[in-house]
Design brief:
globular, 77 residues, four-stranded antiparallel beta sheet, SH3 type barrels, mainly beta, single chain, 12% helix
Length: 77
C-alpha cells in the first residue's frame, strides 16, 4: 500500500473521510488543513501551516507523513 501524496490528500478537503494513520489508528471526519479562513479565530488551526485535521468530531493535527491510507466516506453536501 502506498501512502497518499499531498496532492492526493488535498483532493479530499471538505469531504467526510476515513484516515488510517501510521499507528494503524483509524479516524473519521471532515478533512481540513490548517490556515483555512474559517478557522482564523482558532490560532492552533490557523497559524500552524502544513498540518491537517478532521472535524465532526475534531481530531488531532497530523502531517501528510502520518497518513497511511485515506478513503472518502461521503462527499460534501
Amino acid at each position: 500500500m502506498t501512502r497518499p501524496t499531498k496532492k492526493q490528500l488535498e483532493k479530499y478537503l471538505g469531504k467526510i473521510v476515513k484516515i488510517t494513520i501510521f499507528t494503524n489508528e483509524v479516524i473519521c471526519g471532515e478533512l481540513h488543513q490548517t490556515g483555512e479562513e474559517q478557522f482564523k479565530n482558532n490560532p492552533s488551526l490557523y497559524y500552524r501551516m502544513g498540518y491537517y485535521f478532521l472535524i465532526n468530531p475534531q481530531s488531532f493535527l497530523f502531517r501528510i507523513s502520518h497518513v497511511k491510507k485515506v478513503e472518502v466516506i461521503e462527499d460534501e453536501k
